[in-house]
Amino acid sequence: MLPRGADVMGQDVVVFVGEALANYGFPAGHPLGVDRQAAFWSAAQEQNLHRQAVVGRPRAATRPELERFHTAEHVSWVEARSRAGEGYLDYGDTPAFPGVFDAGAAVAGTALEGLERIMAGNAAKTFQPIGGLHHAQRGQSAGFCVFNDLGVVIDTLRSQFGLDRIAYVDIDVHHGDGVFYSYEADPALTVVDIHESGHFLYPGTGHADETGRGPAKGTKLNLPLNPGAGDREFFAAWERGLAHLRSRAPEFVILQCGADSLLGDPLADLRLTPAAHGRVARDLARLANEVAGGRMMVFGGGGYDLRNLAAAWTRVLAELLRGD
Ligand SMILES: [Zn+2]
């Protein structure tokens, strides 16, 4: 066994789990409950993956950290709703509950903890199963997403670390509208988003002709799939996506690997298997190793069938741990 010197440590994969993240779930039979982290983590332990990864613990984002992406008004609104402990944070998908502010701040803060470890050279890759809240916009919550941890990470990379050329890949069954539209005119953020067509599914966006605006035109790929599409259709789209990513040579890679694109998810209609998630994780890890100094963050995103999310996310984690 190699000594655990600085070089070896630098290749570590950190997986973030803990009570503050598990608490990110909505009450009273909501499809996004508090049982998702445990479903993933017990499967990871059964496969002995927990011994190969470094376990990182959650931390809360501070208000200024949240405001790197979100408006001050939105942060205050969530804080007030959290104190009131009732009502909705949006039009009716995302309920407020006592402590919803802290739950959202834990997701974003843990993402920053992972980012800081990578940028300090103490980790190469991170996996955060409870995270990837891609529907929240700068000024509002949406679609089960209180704060957008992905946007907080992207804006932190720019403002605190001076990294510009970032790739965002999203294979959640829903279009990642909160990320896409926040950077629609930003040419340095490459996006590849494969999802069930917005003609059939929330949020109704992410059509193939949306490739970025103004100076960003052509920097983003939306690759919608029709209901019922499986691995074959997915892999055809992914070949296009991967070629696009290679041509953009990003300095940092972010993957949102929602498991709601798998066959049997109660909220959507694609028929992928965990092989899709594994292949994307492996291809992106290799790309990150080739062009981005290995730097890659992965977030679980959606997924409302517990067996599906456990299967997809353990497959992703296993690919990150392969280290080739
Ligand atoms: Zn989703």
Give your account of this protein's structure.
This protein is α/β, with parallel strands linked by helices and 324 residues long. Helices cover 39% and strands 12% of the residues. The protein has 11 helices and 8 strands. An 8-stranded parallel β-sheet has the order 2-1-3-8-7-4-5-6, sandwiched between helices. β4 (166-170), α8 (177-180) and β5 form a beta-alpha-beta unit. α3 (36-46) crosses α11. The longest helix has 20 residues, at 100-119. It is globular, with a radius of gyration of 18 Å.
Give a brief rundown of this model.
39% of the residues lie in helices and 12% in strands.
For the largest beta-sheet, the strand count, sense and barrel status come to: 8 strands, parallel
Whole-number mean pLDDT: 95
Cα end-to-end separation = 17 Å
* SSE succession: HEHHEHHHEHEHEEHEHEH
Secondary-structure class: alpha/beta
The share of residues in helices is: 25-40%
- Outline type: globular
Bound molecules: zinc ion
Query: What is the alpha-carbon Rg in Å?
Result: 18 Å
